[in-house]
């Protein structure tokens, strides 16, 4: 069961088709396993369909918009349709064996695979990151926004535990040191608007070499 979700504004942008393909892929992977967010997107899709049918320009006051966003962000469980968004996109992109990908050792327990070239024309960097079971990533923050969905295993940091298909967005104000839980290697898919920034006493010396 997922416990960490994209916010209402990002789901609204997804429903409207305004997200770039890497971000949309992260949302689709989360929706495949999260009935709560599927229900929220179905509501947004239905609202969009009605507005298109009416073919009218609708002006929404700030107070009404705030109420809509409050309802979308409500954590109360909602009735949801069965999953209808298969993970075929992930298999088509990466195959079925995530552990068998051509990983490149980066630092300590961390391996990476940059797949940005599979999204031609996109400005963001798209990377897979693997943290070996029980392993620790270097403490770091971010120069931009990092959007991540957990594909396999789980990790913990100062914000909590993130299990398979959980969704997390981190920015320059977030410093953390992810630790993979025992069992499976933790594999994540991340979209970065800018490279991360190592903040450890010694690892920060490697920042000039990190793309």
Mind explaining what this structure looks like?
- The chain has 211 residues and is of the alpha+beta class.
- The chain has 2 domains: 8-88, Orthogonal Bundle (Arc Repressor Mutant, subunit A), CATH 1.10.10.1320; 93-209, Jelly Rolls.
- Helix content is 27%, strand content 23%.
- The protein is built from 5 helices and 11 strands, in the order αααααβββββββββββ.
- The protein has helices at residues 8-15, 21-31, 35-54, 62-73, 88-94; strands spanning 104-107, 110-114, 125-131, 140-142, 146-152, 155-157, 160-162, 167-170, 179-180, 186-192, 196-198.
- The strands form 3 sheets. Strands 1-2-3-10-5-8 form a 6-stranded antiparallel β-sheet, with helices on one face.
- A hairpin with a 2-residue loop joins strand 1 (104-107) and strand 2.
- Helix 1 (8-15) packs across helix 3 (35-54).
- The longest helix has 20 residues, at 35-54.
- It is globular and about 55 Å long.
- The two termini are 33 Å apart.
- 26% of the residues are buried.
- Residues 77-86 have low confidence and may be disordered.
- InterPro entries: Anti-sigma_ChrR, Anti_sigma_zinc_sf, ChrR-like_cupin_dom, RmlC-like_jellyroll, RmlC_Cupin_sf.
- Residues 122-189 form the ChrR-like cupin domain.
- This is Anti-ECFsigma factor, ChrR.
């Amino acid at each position: 069961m997922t416990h960490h979700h994209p916010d209402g504004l990002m789901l609204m942008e997804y429903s409207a088709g305004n997200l770039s393909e890497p971000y949309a892929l992260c949302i689709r992977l989360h929706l495949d396993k999260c009935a709560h967010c599927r229900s929220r997107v179905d509501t947004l899709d239905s609202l969009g369909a009605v507005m298109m049918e009416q073919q009218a320009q609708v002006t929404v006051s700030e107070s009404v918009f705030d109420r809509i966003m409050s309802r979308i962000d409500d954590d109360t469980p909602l009735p949801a349709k069965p999953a209808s968004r298969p993970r075929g996109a992930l298999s088509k992109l990466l195959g079925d064996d995530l552990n068998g990908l051509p990983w490149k050792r980066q630092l300590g327990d961390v391996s990476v695979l940059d797949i940005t070239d599979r999204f031609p024309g996109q400005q963001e960097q798209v990377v897979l990151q693997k943290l070996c079971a029980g392993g620790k990533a270097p403490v770091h923050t971010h120069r931009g926004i990092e959007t991540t969905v957990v594909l396999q295993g789980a990790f913990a940091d100062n914000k909590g535990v993130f299990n398979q298909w959980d969704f997390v967005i981190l920015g320059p104000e977030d410093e953390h040191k992810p630790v993979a839980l025992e069992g499976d290697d933790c594999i994540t898919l991340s979209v970065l608007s800018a490279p991360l920034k190592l903040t450890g006493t010694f690892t920060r010396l490697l920042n000039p070499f990190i793309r």
